[in-house]
Write a structure and sequence with these properties.
This protein is an alpha+beta fold. It is 41% helix and 21% strand. The protein is globular.
Amino acid sequence: MKNIYLFFACFFLVCSLLPGAYRTAHAADYSKQAALVDQATITFKRFLSDPNMKWFRENLCSAKALLIIPQLLKGAFIFGAEGGTGVLVAKDEHTGQWSQPAFYTLASASFGLQAGAESSSIILMIMTDKGMDALLSTSVKLGGDISVAAGPYGAGAKAATVDVLAFAKAKGVFGGISVEGSIITPRDSYNIAYYQSNVRAVDIIIRRNVANPHSQALIKAVSEPCRHKAPAEKEEKESKEGTTGQE
């Protein structure tokens, strides 16, 4: 009889500890995504403030979305492949508001990093609807499914007409980067953990039916550069429409 009481005592003790253990594990898992969002915010601000990223700043408001990867590593994956995880934020073409972040992974057999560089921060500027639509699929190959080019930098730079422009910082130097052949895929497990809901990238980017207050710093950072440009663009559009109507 004593053994039975001991068994039940141990059983209830274990059961009482399980919720706490689950919360601890969940918090640890959640903090991984939160830290990545924080790193993405810092990465974006560094790109924006660098004097050499003039083209990036001036054309930011024309982008459909940004995929910010704080750390792209060489030899980070199995079999010598390279890659990193980051967040995608997209701009609503009607309201100009940026979405909550969706987590994505970028992987490749070989990135065109600078000689000797083992890691790089990277931002992919999505310039077309085709590029945006492709990112909402299961996976997309840069240079295959959609076109990609190294992003221009410095004063007077000109960009080719492509779906995606890639900007990077490696070894303390900002510039373009070759990511052609890389595969981008949504990181569903990170999205589920961050929003504590069974969501996919399309739920976050298009339907916008989930939110995490923690992301406000990132959304504010990407929103502020375009805050004063929106009215000017609207006035220009209305002016053109008025001229066309008079004709």
